[in-house]
Amino acid sequence: MLTNTTKVTVRYGETDQMGVVYHANYVVWCEIGRTKLIEDLGFKYADMEERGVVSPVTNINLNYLYPAKYGEDVTVNTWIEQYNGLRVTYGYRIENSEGELCVEGTSEHVCVDARTFRPVAIKKKFPDWHEAYEKNKK
């Protein structure tokens, strides 16, 4: 199982009035980790989109456990939690520089035709992605 590790420095604009990271910014960091994981596997979202396929989020579940703060470096760990040829679930763990677990969770995605939003089987449309996902899922 391949896990991508991406470092992010918390910027001031990502914090709220309490001086901690605003909850929605963790979703952005998950997207950064997910994109990097896909690149580690040898692919790019843009290539998929050029072929008329997009991959919307169908569900996201994040558990907020400890606040990340301005100026800290956080580590976003991302992996393929589940994959069935149509739906992909990515797993995430975001830790601060002290190793404290700030957020953990998952996001589910399905590939769809960009015009019709009808599901697209990854196995048929992108066999190389399918093979990589099968090989690297948890």
The coarse overall form would be elongated
Q: What would CATH call the homologous superfamily?
A: Hotdog Thioesterase
Shape-level CATH architecture:
Roll
Strand order of the largest sheet: 1-4-5-6-3
- CATH top level is Alpha Beta
Could you please say which CATH topology applies here? Thiol Ester Dehydrase, Chain A
Q: What value does the Rg take, in angstroms? A: 16 Å
Poorly predicted residue ranges: none
Order of helices and strands: EHHEEEEEEHH
Number of domains in the coordinates?
1
What does this structure look like?
This protein is α+β, with helices and mostly antiparallel strands. The chain has a single domain (3-136), classed as Hotdog Thioesterase (Thiol Ester Dehydrase, Chain A, Roll). 27% of the residues lie in helices and 36% in strands. The chain is built from four helices and seven strands. The strands form two sheets. It has a five-stranded antiparallel β-sheet. The mean pLDDT is 95.
